[in-house]
TrEMBL record:
<dbReference type="InterPro" id="IPR003593">
    <property type="entry name" value="AAA+_ATPase"/>
</dbReference>
<keyword id="KW-0813">Transport</keyword>
<protein>
    <submittedName>
        <fullName>ABC transporter ATP-binding protein</fullName>
    </submittedName>
</protein>
<keyword id="KW-0067">ATP-binding</keyword>
<dbReference type="Pfam" id="PF00005">
    <property type="entry name" value="ABC_tran"/>
</dbReference>
<dbReference type="InterPro" id="IPR027417">
    <property type="entry name" value="P-loop_NTPase"/>
</dbReference>
<dbReference type="GO" id="GO:0016887">
    <property type="term" value="F:ATP hydrolysis activity"/>
</dbReference>
<keyword id="KW-0547">Nucleotide-binding</keyword>
<dbReference type="InterPro" id="IPR003439">
    <property type="entry name" value="ABC_transporter-like_ATP-bd"/>
</dbReference>
<feature type="domain" description="ABC transporter">
    <location>
        <begin position="2"/>
        <end position="239"/>
    </location>
</feature>
<dbReference type="GO" id="GO:0005524">
    <property type="term" value="F:ATP binding"/>
</dbReference>
Length: 259
């Protein structure tokens, strides 16, 4: 679904990515981790076409977004949804208007139809009834994330990009959000590119994990394989106190088949 080859990103004299390669497979939840400033968000922005890389190739659905005409690009963009770190909702629109926006702009639905469908998407994302008419400033952090997720799902995307979706949520809300992502992936057949620092999320829902370090994807694979990488950052991340706690919690949790 996504192919990144030999990606280089520089800001002035600072090199963030150097010869970075990454593949994202259809139907998987790929967790992207790395220390602060290793370029996870810059990678996401490069893939969704919000940033022109210094060099290298990025293909989404086999297409190089930046080489497409605006019309062709808009057709490809409709096939993915993005949940940005802070939700990025329009503060002057209420929640259902926020979700209806892409349906009006990209799917050219009439406003009443878009708002009705927006209500369905909000329910899908687990927003309680009655929240539709609230403004972003009137919602809790967890509700903002769900509303932003509903907007990312508005156009029935095939790929969902999530930038730190559980950051700032309490542990119970974060676990519920993880389960929601897993359920949506299974129900809708989504491919998920997930930037996170959250070890519980990695253990609970990710099929593969990619570690950004030393300006590239240092290692990518199933979590138990990645955790064996001798790199010092990987070792302290997965085998430090928080990593051990997440692993133990995961081992104690019932497997999905048992639930
Ligand atoms: N528009 C920009 N101009 C200049 N430097 C930038 C820009 N965007 C990102 N950077 C730099 O690129 C580096 C990587 O940033 P990025 O936000 O991708 O890191 P990250 O891995 O997502 O970090 P965090 O985990 O803290 O969110 C940082 O040093 C940042 O300062």
């Amino acid at each position: 679904m996504i192919q990144v080859r030999d990606l280089v990103n520089r800001f002035g004299t600072q090199t963030v990515h150097e010869h970075l390669d990454l593949d994202v497979r259809r139907g998987e939840i790929l967790g992207v981790v790395g220390g602060s400033g290793t370029g996870k968000s810059v990678l996401l922005r490069s893939i969704v076409g919000l940033r022109r890389p210094t060099s290298g190739q990025v293909h989404v659905f086999g297409q190089d977004l930046l080489s497409l005409s605006p019309k062709q690009r808009s057709l490809v963009e409709r096939r993915f949804g993005v949940l940005f770190q802070n939700g990025a909702l329009f503060s002057s629109l209420n929640i259902v208007e926020n979700v209806a926006m892409p349906l009006i702009e990209h799917a050219h639905l009439a406003r009443p139809d878009a708002q009705q469908l927006g209500g369905v998407k909000l329910a899908l994302a687990g927003l309680p009834a009655g929240a539709e008419s609230k403004y972003p400033s009137e919602l809790s952090g967890g509700m903002v994330k769900r509303a932003a997720l509903a907007r990312a799902l508005a156009l029935d995307p095939e790929i969902l990009f999530l930038d730190e979706p559980t950051a700032g949520l309490d542990p119970i809300s974060a676990a519920a959000f993880d389960q929601l992502i897993l359920t949506l992936r299974d129900a809708l057949g989504l491919t998920v590119f997930l930037v996170t620092h959250d070890l519980d999320t990695l253990y609970t829902i990710c099929d593969r994990v990619a570690v950004l370090s030393q300006k590239k994807v240092l290692v990518v694979g199933p979590l138990d394989e990645v955790a064996q990488c001798p790199d010092p950052w990987v070792q302290s991340y997965f085998h430090g106190p928080r990593g051990r706690a997440a692993e133990e919690a995961h081992e104690r949790a019932p497997s999905p088949e048992v639930k």
